Each structure stands twice: as C-alpha cells, then as structure tokens.
Fold these 3 entries.
Entry 1:
Amino acid sequence: MTAVLQARGLGKRYGRRWALRDCTIDIPAGHVVGLVGPNGAGKTTLLKLAGGQLAPTSGSVAVLGGPAGGPAQLAKVGFVAQDTPVYAGLSVADHLRLGARLNRGWDAALARNRIGQLGLDLSHRAGNLSGGQRAQLALTLGLAKRPELLILDEPVASLDPLARREFLQGLMEAVAEHELSVVLSSHLVADLERTCDYLIVLVDSRVRVAGQIENLLATHHRLTGPRRDPGRLPADQHVVSARHTDRQSTFVVRTEAPIHDPAWTVSGLSLEDLVLAYMEKPAAARPLLEVQQ
C-alpha cells in the first residue's frame, strides 16, 4: 500500500496538554479518505501537522514520501480548513493573484474556469461572499495548486445543506478530473457516505478501524439474541460494541466468516452505525484493528 500520509508515534503538546499523542497511522493513496472521530481525538492536530502548519513535539509524520512541512511537500499539498481561510478584505481576483505568487505550480486557467463556473464576481471582496462562496473560493485555491494530496478539515461544517452539497459535488468532480488523493475530516457521516471510499476512525489519537468502506460494511454485523457473555462468541467474531438488557444482548461484531448461530438475528450496519460503534467507550477495552489493505 502506498501511503500519502504516515505518522509514527506522532505527538503534539501545548504546555502540559497533549492534543495528539503516540499516533501511528497510514493513509493510503488513490482514495477519498474520511477521517472521523469524537472531539478531542486529534484529527485537526494531525492534519495541521501533515500540512506543515504545526511542528511535532514527538514522533514523525511524512507526506507523499517526505517529511511534512518541507518546501517540496508543501508544494504538493492543498489544505482547506474549517474556517475556509480566505482574506475578508481581498477581492476574489486578489486571491487568485496571491495564489499565483505563492505557488510554483499554480494553474491559472483552472482557477479562472472554476471561478467562472461558480459565478463569482472577481471584484467582490471575500468578506462580502456567502459562507458557501467562501468555501468554494478556498477549495479553488487548494485545487489550483495542482496538489497530489488535498486535505480538508471539516470544510463544510458551518454551511447550510445546499452549500454543503454544492461544495462536495465540486470536490468529487475535481477528484475525478485530477485523480487526487483526498483526506476529508468531518463529523457529518452523510457527507462521508456521499464522497469517501475509505474510512479511518480515530479515537484518543489511535486508529480504531481503517479500511475501504465497502469492505467494512460487508464484514460488520449486528447480532441480537438471548443474553450472552461476549467471551462465548466464536474467536473469529471480534466484538466492537456490546449492549445488554436482562434478557437480551446486542453485539456489533467484525468477522470474515458467515454467522450460522440460529440464536442470533443478524443485520447489517449503516456507516453511521459503524462509526458510532467504534467511537463508544471504553476504547481501551477492545484491541485495535489492523488497517485493511
């Protein structure tokens, strides 16, 4: 597996507080990867370290085969943050000129064409644009770098449903046209379902599960039946989460093998079910799963 982002024992500390600690992760190339986890899991810190906006306190992080933050790596990475980093006092045209000055591989034609398709007035200041328009401008700046990796840190969290749909549609069109690798951090599972083909769940700086979404959904099941201790389940059924009443148990399990026990009612999971199962506490009570190739 070729990785666009690799972290080994990566940590970032602010004073006495660790925002990310002992994080080891491989994010594969050639996918639109959804990065999801609870608040405080370290997602934004990880992405900022990868984007060269922060320096690690411990461990290492590599992007596209080289140390993150180096000039060669930064030229290959596009980054769009949650606050859609544009300058309120600059016009749309000013942003395009600034992008051209700062980025050696700037594709002026791509930027102009995309701004035209969006119907943005080049003379309008970014501060006068709607939230959706600012997000689209930020995405245009990221794409016009012609990056190999595009990092998106909750870019649509503050947008209304229509603006969010338009942003994600534009993203998928760009992925198809330019064959980008993408890492998209989001709390909105519906957006991940719409755009991503690979999922990573990060909890407490650690990968709880990672793999192609199609495979993950095919190998995870909900079992409902008479109350049973999880230790009595077959060894090839990894218990992700368990809930019990006086008479009934409900497990989310991961297994490659068919489930033949007639005591169980077996059902599939939605992507949201899968994510929530892996985000449940205590994470330390269940072993980490290896990344699927």
Entry 2:
Amino acid sequence: MVRVPLSVLDLATVRAGHDSADALRGTIELARTADDLGYARFWIAEHHNMPAVAATSPPVLIAAVAAQTSRIRVGSGGVMLPNHMPFVVAEQFAMLEALHPGRIDLGIGRAPGTDQVTAAALRGVSPYLTVEQFPDHLDTVLALLSADGGQRLRATPAATSYPQVFLLGSSTYSAQLAAALGLPFCYAYHFATGGSAVDAALQLYRQGFRPSTRLDRPYAMVSVSAIAAQTTAEADYLAGPSRIMALSLRTGKLGPIVSPETAAAVELTDLDRELLAQLPATQYAGTAEEVVAALDALVERTGVDELMLAGAAYDVATRQETLARIAKVWT
C-alpha cells in the first residue's frame, strides 16, 4: 500500500465553557504536535460569524503557528478570495513567505466561509468583491506571487521565494479551474455529502490538467475528518460533538462545540436522525488501525497524492491523540 503524506486542517474550534483565546492556543498546540510527528502541512480555515470557529483571519494565525513550529509547512485551507482584494492577499502571503521561506502555502477557495449576510458585511459595497470575478482575481494573485508576473504592482519589494498556491473546492468547477491553471487541487471531502462527487472532481482535474510553471503534473489532495482512539466505542463517543455541530449548522442553532457527555445526552428527533444520516461529520472514527484502513482504501480508490486530516473535537487533546495514533500506524 502506497502511504502518501499526511497533513492537518484546523478551524480553531471554540468549545462550550471556553473562549477564542483558548481555541487559538489549542490550534498552536495542535500544530506543534503535527510538526513533531512529521505531518507535511498544517492548514487553517477561514470562517466568519460562527460561535464554534475562531479561525477568522488565516494570515494572522498562520504567522503565529509558523513562529511556534520549525519544519512543517503552514498555510490557509483556505483564504476565501471573494472576501478580499487580491493585492491584499498577495501582500499578506508574500510577507509570510519572507518571514518563513519555503514553509508557506496559500490555499484559495471560492465559497464565502459564512452566511450571505456576513459575506455582505465583509465585502461592503465593493463592486470588485464578487464570486463572478473569482477567476480574474485568482489570476491576479498568481501573477503577484510569481517571479515572472510582469506587473507594475509587486506584492513585496524583493522576493526570493514564493508561497505554494493550491485551489480548494468541493465541486467540479474548482477541479476544472485548477486543472486549467496547472495548480495543485484539494477536494474538501470532509464536508462533502456524497462519496462519488470526489471521484468525479478528481477525474476532471486529471483529465484537464495543463502543466504550468508552478506544477508539471496533477497533484491532488483530499481532506477527511477522522478521530482515532483506543477503542471503536471510545472514538464514536468522542465523535459525538462533531455530529451535533454538523446538525446545528444545518438547523441554524449555532453554538460552541459541546462536550462528548453533552452530545451523548442530546435527545434526537426522527428528523434529527434523518438529517445526521445525510450530513458529513466525523467520517472515520475508530481505532488507529481501523482509521488507517479506511484512509488506505480512500487513497487506493482516488489515487490522491496527499491526505489532509480534519476533525471537530471538543478537546484539543483528542485531536493530538488522533494524530499520534494515526502517525504511528501510518509509518
């Protein structure tokens, strides 16, 4: 079995009874663990106006994480480009790359990372911040973060290296755009509801890939949600908060992530159970051997070059233990 590199995606989850500062400290602790265990990348998501997520500004948190780690690549998973002016994004990541050469990734997404009201507050009345302009804005960022951009504007005065740019998505649109531009592509399988969608997206990506100065062959990643524990029952128990969080997102009853005890005590209606059967939460929960077997099967089926482990958990220790258990079996 081919063992591809493993990476980590984090949302700086805010748990019940704690605050954003606790969540951000937890992210840094988790990044240190991933660094020590040999994971390839540590990415930070962008979400807004969500009680359970403190990751509102990836560049700020990337700077903190990169300063507290030594080897692992650190990046965004991702920056939601329609929320930001392209030149600002390019400047931020050019500066991060200057601070930590060879360790910065810029993962770019098209979704708002929030509801439409919050997205409107982020973008204001700017006619330039729209989803329709995403391809043009992506081209601008790519040009600004390259040695051969040939533009009057420069993201940094004297760059000696550039961040690696990835396109993120959960649709065939993003897969096809990444292929056309010759970019590595990461499919957000951790919140996908259909198993076949990832296969279709990756097939289109590989079929349409055009080599570029950034990448000479397709490079595909898939993010999955996983929790590993000593027993299957314990892992299922620890995955309870992620199921309640997924349900709250669907029903609009947002709040901090609850404890496993609270999640286990929630009385679910028949409608709740029906929704949970359709919702992504923790996709793989079990012993390390069980989770790794599922990851192996996913790699074999999709042929991906790298896996990124996500997972909503009440306690950062749950995610640290998950990473340690999986890394031990994976290697």
Entry 3:
Amino acid sequence: MTITRLDSVAQANRAVVEKAFAVLEAWDHRGESLGASELARRTGLPKSTSHRLLGILEAAGVVERLSGSYRLGDRLRGISGMVAAGFPDLREVGLPFMQDLYELTHETVHLGALDGADVHCVEKIYGHRRSPLASRVGGVLPAHTTALGKALLAFSSLNVQRSVLTYLDEPLVLSAELRRTRRAGVAFDLGETHPDVNCVAAPVLNREGRAIAAISVSGPAERFTPAMVTDRVRRAAHAASMALASGRPDSVSA
C-alpha cells in the first residue's frame, strides 16, 4: 500500500471518528432520547450517515436503541466512572466527612458530582437499613429531583441550570427551589425521587463558590426527618470545601 493510500485511509478513519463525536455531542443531557431524524438535524449529517454511525455506536455499547429512538448507553457511564476515579482528591477529601455523618445518623450518605442532567455517585456509605432508593458508586440519579442534584445545580452557572430546566415540564418550580437552596445552603428531596425516601444535601464548593460535589444524608421517610441533620450536613460540606481547597483531607473537622 502506498503512502498516498495510507494517508487516504487515515483521513477517512479520522472523518468517521469526528462524525461519531458529532453524533454523541448532539445529546443535551444523558437522559434524553433522540430519533435518527432529530440527530441528523442537530448534527447536519445525512440521515443515512446518522443511521450507520448509530449502528456502530450501538454495537460498541455507547448508545442504546429504544423504540424508535436512541439514548446514551451504559458504556459512557463507565467512562464517567473512570473520569471520576481520575479525581481521587474528591473521594479522599469527602470520605472522612461522610463517615462523620454516618456515625451521627447511621443513615445512607452519598457524595455526588454533576454529570449533565444527572448526578454521578462518586462515593456511598450504606445505612443500617436498606434504602428503597437504588443507588451505587458509579451510578447516576436525576439531578432535578434529588437533594444532591438540587444542591449542585443551585451553585452552578446559569448555563448549567438552563440546560436542565429547559427539559422540565415545570421549570419555574425547580428554579424557585434552586433560589431557596442557594439562600439556605442546603437542598431537600422529600419523597420526590422515591416516595419512601427523604434526603438533605449541601454543596462542596471551590474557591469561586461553584459546586464541584455535594454530600447528602438520606433515609426512610417513615423515620428520617432531614431537618434533624440539616446543620450537620451543611457543616460537613463546608468543612469538605475547606479541606479540598487546602489539599489536606483531615485539616478541618465537621
């Protein structure tokens, strides 16, 4: 094979990869489902090309085919997990304060980071009793209903907030709640994500006041009242923020 031929093959392969990335970037958030026609419209690619690329991405587990549409697949969630694993400081700094909250409550404690319209579970300490809400490290939860997601969104940029609010049936309700969360420094989920689970969360902030993570405590609604631990959660998240900024996980007590 001549050098010219090799160059042509390399260029063709690069073009396929670029088009595949264009398809993946068409999704505004992880939970969104798109048909081939809408993907073609958003990417500007011919519908036949979109179909072909979707077949390749589906075979690789990067997208999932639904009834007449597609969504981002589980393999991307695995990649998200690897990305989170690439920031060990977040887990290392957050875990001592999560353990403090667990010892105080014996309820389930989460550390999460925003991943599009979802919350990526970075770390979890299981409570004494099994929670009705299924969650796992590396898994995702909806940002717009969970206390973790609301705490993260409230202290994110307006562009990030709009990217989630745009796809809600009642965006003004969440928008008002995000304003209250920002004032109070904590967010609540009173049976929204699961009718039998209550939760309270607070953001872990960087030096600019933007949320890079959030810590939550959740428990069965029949016996767990978030107001009882609100101050503790707020203080733990604040202490984690200070520890992360200083680079010393044990530098501040919750």
